Amino acid sequence: MKVLICYFSGTNNTKKIVDRYCQSFEDNGVECDLHKIENDEFDKNIEDYDMLGIAYPVHAFNAPSIVLEFAKKLPEASKKVFIAKTSGEPLKLNNISSLKLIKLLKKKGYSVENEYHYCMPYNIIFRHTDDMAYRMWESAKAVVPIDCKSILDGKKEKLDGVFMGSLLAWIFRIEFWGGRFNGKRYKVSDECVHCNRCIKTCPTKNITIENGEFKFGDKCIMCMRCSFFCPKNAIKIGLFNKWRVNGPYHFQKPEKEEENKHKNYCKKSYKKYFEKCQAKVDAEKENLEKVG
Ligand SMILES: Cc1cc2nc3c(=O)[nH]c(=O)nc-3n(C[C@H](O)[C@H](O)[C@H](O)COP(=O)(O)O)c2cc1C
Q1: How much is the pLDDT for 292?
Q2: In angstroms, what is the span from residue 89 Cα to ligand 1's centroid?
Q3: pLDDT at residue 17 in the model
Q4: Relative to the CA of 58, which ligand 1 atom is closest?
Q5: How far apart are CA 2 and CA 269, in angstroms?
Q6: Which end of the chain is more exposed for a tag (fewer CB within 10 A), N or C?
């Protein structure tokens, strides 16, 4: 059996999940190939694969525009698909993010049979504490192999719907336009050391230098890669600058307790999310004990 996972990841959270999937598939004797959606050329033949996976970070309760554009260009094929998404908060509203993608895939003959959501730390709005990032990753790390097994066992698993979900997702897609509008307003401060990391890694090649000045075009998809990984925190993200998050998460257990300024933010939802992950892990353990 052979699986192809096509993914987009702005700041590597989704990539971390995708790598975990790949490892889990391989642990089950399944070959797993990856395709990075931002690469212009789709050099894989879908017919070589038994199953397709699509992974993305939730952007304004939707799949990023780059993922939807990719789905539009996929060849027609009758293949099973699973979706894996990451998002900063565990709200059910994030479930609507795949509705448009599922519709596009269905039109081409694909059938989405499994859909999973993993909480990973915010790359915009505010910086999650190291402890929160660690807990999120530990939960996802434990749950992905179980989800992977469900996919391989042919167990269909979909996320719950939301009332008027398609309409809400459509309204939130204003972010696609907002990103392009806001992207042109990015500015680089004097702290910049001209390492050009932002230019080299922008997934839409939206950053250039003209007459020695940084120029941000109108192709920004608000993935945050440029400002998040800027070693000097020198990129101001236009109207959303107050929500800027800079510097990669390390996903390690912190040695000291840190102040959590956002400890009441979505508190109940996070609690429910972690409990649900733990319950899944416990159920799997019980299952294995019964079998073994
Ligand atoms: C423009 C933008 C919009 C976002 N919208 C949402 C959202 O609607 N819900 C949510 O929970 N997280 C949202 N997030 C947070 C990301 O989904 C989350 O941090 C994700 O794990 C980032 O993954 P990546 O590192 O693979 O890009 C948003 C992030 C960005 C940059």
Answers
A1: 75
A2: 8
A3: 98
A4: 17
A5: 36
A6: C
Atom index in ligand 1 nearest the CA of residue 121 equals 19
Q: Where are the domains of the chain?
A: 2-170, 181-243
Find the 172 Cα to ligand 1 centroid distance in Å. Answer: 13
Q: Which two tokens stand for residue 109?
A: 């003959």
DSSP per-residue codes, 39-52: SS-----GGG-SEE
Q: Name the fold adopted by 2-170.
A: Rossmann fold (3.40.50)
What spacing in Å lies between the alpha carbon of 176 and ligand 1's midpoint? 13
How many CA atoms are closer than 13 Å to the CA of 69, on its beta-carbon side?
A: 12
Confirm if 35 and 42 have CB atoms less than 8 A apart: yes
Q: How many CB atoms lie within 10 A of CB 130?
A: 18
Indicate whether this model's pTM tops 0.85: yes
Whole-number Å distance between alpha carbons of 214 and 200:
13
Residue nearest to atom 19 of ligand 1 (CA): 122
CATH tag, 181-243: 3.30.70.20
